[in-house]
Design brief:
Four copies of one chain form a homotetramer. Chain A is α+β, with helices and mostly antiparallel strands. The first copy, chain A, has nine helices and 18 strands. In chain A, α1 crosses α9 (337-358) and α3 (131-146) crosses α9. Chains in contact: A-B, A-C, A-D, B-C, B-D, C-D. β11 (248-253) of chain A pairs antiparallel with β11 (248-253) of chain B.
Chain lengths: 364, 364, 364, 364
């Protein structure tokens, strides 16, 4: 597979460049019979779209999705769902300055090294704009997962901004409902921390600079038994999905790096019986043991670097390797984190939907 | 794919349980014409094998590999390489105690939840013993990569123990040749740190407990252009490969989580011209930009939790969900890190070999 | 993979129902640097489109393709090519009669059996309309293959109608250029046979009935060495691709079933030296030996059944299993063969492009 | 994937050359909880093995399979099943004569053209010996399918020799139980035809020549709904699987090529109600409509060419392209058909098992 698909049974393939006519994708493997609420898909896109607040780029994309197939009278038919998202506010001329030189810490140089040709406008295929298609896929995955267990609690995925640069939430990772997360523009569920984060982002924006931080994502009500041994461990597939987002620098599961400082006797999660079910007393494992979900919350932390496009002048080289300088133009985010929240959720949802289907083949 | 394969063009599929008759695998996609040095494969297995030193489990596996196909007169023929590794020192009776109860933070419960049946002996398929097959695959990948550029420097991969619990090397990640790494039993290239690590591991071992830490792996001389946009970014595939190893809790690329504290103006890697080539002045990117290698060192840090098998008594439940206790028996490692070094290298080598082949299709 | 993709390195994924808003697809794996002539893609679609002549359905689709990504200044960039084909002349109301009953020898019953839900309008996903997306993929494959060997003769693929019911060309399979094939509406390169075929099709059409026959496809200038041993033999992949077209009942390679009547001494193709190259004196093998191309013409014959939609009354059952009758309405083809020619070419082109790329990984 | 695997969820990967130390494979995706009868696997291998009768090659392989993993106390565990088959009677020296010249209509030339290196001994990887691993996979698939519907009739697959050269069974394709098929050495269920076939094979053998013919395979009790729309149609996957066998020249489904002579009004299979189920009155469709099983018998006919190795002298060229001659030595079959019967069954069983698992994801 040439790299534009994710998932084996619930599979999203995307296409599209930042400043071409449209983005889009095909979602294969959606089972038949899932009722699809299209306005809810649009609502998830609205969480990702630029221009939501002062904290994000001023690019004015409506990101309106059109579903072209796979639905009949409001339900999925089991056939692939094709969709498109037109690029409405493309301003390719804003990118003339980076046609012949390489923006530092962007993909300009590496795409040229690989392909010998590159659509330089707004990062082309490497633009974070491509993640709009992932959010569509994730929104469809969410609706599938919600309808999977009519009797029981549905798997739920929620992410939030835990830290902007060194401003971090005081409390450990937990599941926060979307309305709590979205109560402020920075998408941090702790209001006091959120306002400090917001101030920092605006300060950095005024300086023409950028900041990073971390996003926590929690999946609850994932039943025990999802994930495969060896190479397709549930967290290995989650890791691949999350690392495929732009700007990721680090990932932790459960206790993460701090767990590597503990002794085994303290780190192990004792099994206990609770209301007739087998649970663990602690959750250093982050909901996954031996690559397979154990029914506890799946807890991941994703570190994002500061956005590479800054408005101050930087040293770089031309395509011909001559020294030069450049400074960012166009419309960019001072901090990717608030908009990364729906992207992170989408990736986790896609992986869970895939393993929900794969799990059906575990037993005779 | 059902989860026992890794790679698309250079693909390893493994089989085998800890205490069955044999482990093994099939390596597909090895190009024709690669000269294979079998003793060097064995030498890599010897780095992984149990019983190397006081720091590792006393299980006495020779881990002797037999290549069954795909070679003719010392060279690869382009057809799949099948191989087996007999389980010589299997003592299934040592595991009778965990047939009916779940070892905390092992895969016992989750395998039962998934499959309803489980080979409990030594962890079965979930045992770290399965990684022997990965080391064979990685050793074959290494020989392929070494012969890929007869004129230029070959891609090289080397890993080492950077930290055991809180005892860490004082210097930043760098490439150390294997002989430096292997100069001591703990596989830390700094002798003074190594001896403190060793003391800690032995102390913990005496207490029947375990410790974790981190391994750094560096790939040098990877040419620019390897990796694919979007989902199969080079670091996304590396992340999946590394997270598929047992006991991983965290992963960082380049600047990692500490990079998420920096501003964009400080984090960006300026391009510079050096000896006619395009290079970067710093390497916060860790050798990968937009998912594609840029020719700089690829630098990853993998955090491993303390081994779950401890010799002290722990609370747990039986398969029927009754409260009970158990303590580890069998032969186990107080610290997985020294033996994780060749496993980490193998995973990185497999991913690089795969992208070396995928890269050939980038241009007309 | 859920079944809407073909190819491993040159991979087409399609979506779309006969009477939904649009069809389309994503072509992944097209190498960078291929110059794309969009009017030539449209010309291939025009060969497949309905309403070309009296011999085909009266549905008036323009089948206008829009490429949405993967091109920059007329050349491919190595990123996926997304495309859409709007359904302009959809008349869903024409299909009300088959909502609650199963058309004989169509996919109505089996889709219901599989999914429990079905878009009955015009066959939905099972409609031959879906093949428009394949023709786009095949047209892109053709342009890639043409530019693959700037120095030498490019691989060429051409198909034609060899037989309609019992009216067959008198001469054995051969390569005919498209302009010869397209000289008449039935796409048979022998004018005399073509006019008899045309008369037969019109006669059958007047009777409200349908006929089948066979299409021959020949690929010339495929270099030796394409195809993989064992399961992905070149002809195994061609077989899958061709059998995935609607209405296929038989397939032959080279000597086909008549070759199974010969003795080995007569059937074997002796190797001979010709102009410095290794060739075979005969071509019973049909250009493929051991699953790998040998440089001779690849010759395949595909048998198509008569179209299932007929205008006379037939016995059938309702969704509830009650006996009933129905007769075809809507706009249908009396004979699929003339329009099958570009579909068959497309499938062969897609497979050849895939193996052209796979072949690059055969040697160190 | 590099071509040595078949199936997506029930996946067989094979390795091994004709005269290397061993053949073998890995079967992934076998669900947990299937009781495995190992002697029955061996019995299927015995049907394929050389030296069964005067009609087959004198090579004396016991083809003893060892299962190395994936079983625990007689049941599958859901983990991959690795297996090996040692090459006991390898006589590589018998093949010295074809090291430097190309056997006509064998894979010698094409493997050299592809890889530039070749294990010439007995055809290496291209040898029909590789199919032993497929028979193991098929035997495991059969046991899985048999246990899939504890309440209802299990899917059953049976093949037989329908025609040797021009000596054909007088009756149309039907399901014959294995004991009827195996009642004679030629595996034709009609005793009178069988004895004429046997005489022909022995006559041709005495002349140092070879013959081909056709095998019919029928799958009964496959439930409606297996197979996927578009590219992974059930018969497209069956076609690929069957065309991947050595020596295949033609394939027909249901009415086959003779169906292409009929009119639609005669060819369509009317739906009827029978014992409360929806059935078809005729079965020209061969049990598959729109790529999905309809519950009727799946009927396929596979044409095999005469074996390429003949004992009389033939013209050919050396690796350097010089004219020469050669005649077959080694131990070969005058007619592949009796031994092809278990191979054909294996391929059909593997595809059915795969789609049995894929089918589980069709609905919410």
């Amino acid at each position: 597979m040439p790299g534009s698909s994710i998932g084996q049974r619930f599979k999203l393939t995307t296409f599209g460049e930042s400043h071409g006519p449209a983005l889009g994708g095909i979602l294969e493997g959606m089972p038949a019979g899932v009722a699809i609420d299209i306005p809810r898909i649009q609502a998830e896109l609205d969480r990702r779209r630029p221009g939501q607040s002062q904290l994000t780029t001023a690019r004015k994309e409506q990101d309106e999705v059109t579903l072209l197939s796979g639905l009949y009278e409001g339900k999925t038919t089991g056939t692939p769902i094709g969709f498109t998202l037109p690029n409405a506010d493309a301003k390719p001329q804003e990118y003339a300055h980076n046609e012949d030189r390489y923006r530092p810490s962007h993909a300009d140089y590496t795409y040229d090294a690989k392909y010998g040709i590159r659509d330089h406008r707004g990062g082309g295929r490497a633009s974070a704009r491509e993640t709009a298609s992932r959010v569509v896929g994730g929104a469809l995955a969410r609706q599938f997962l919600e309808q999977l267990y009519p009797q029981g609690p549905a798997p739920q995925v929620s992410a939030y901004v835990e830290r902007v640069q060194d401003i971090a939430m005081p409390s450990p990772p937990a599941f926060y409902p979307t309305q709590t997360v979205d109560a402020n523009a920075v998408r941090c569920p702790d209001p006091e921390t959120a306002s400090r984060m917001e101030a920092r982002i605006l300060e950095v924006k005024r300086a023409g600079d950028t900041v990073g931080g971390s996003v926590v994502v929690v999946a609850q009500h994932v039943p025990p038994g999802w994930g495969e041994p060896v190479f397709d461990k549930l967290h290995a597939d989650l890791a691949k999905a999350l690392w495929s987002l732009p700007a990721v620098k680090g990932l932790e599961l459960g206790s993460g790096f701090s767990g590597t400082l503990m002794k085994g006797s303290a780190h192990n999660d004792p099994f206990v019986r609770e209301d007739g079910a087998i649970r663990t007393a602690t959750n250093h494992s982050g909901g996954i043991q031996g690559g397979i979900s154990n029914g506890e919350d799946i807890v991941l932390r994703v570190g994002f670097k500061p956005v590479a496009t800054i408005l101050t002048e930087q040293a770089t080289v031309t395509r011909q390797g001559q020294d030069t300088t450049m400074s960012g133009r166009g419309r960019h985010d001072p901090c990717v984190l608030p908009r990364a929240v729906p992207m992170v959720e989408a990736m986790v949802l896609l992986v869970l939907a895939d393993h929900a289907l794969r799990q059906r083949n575990a037993r005779l």
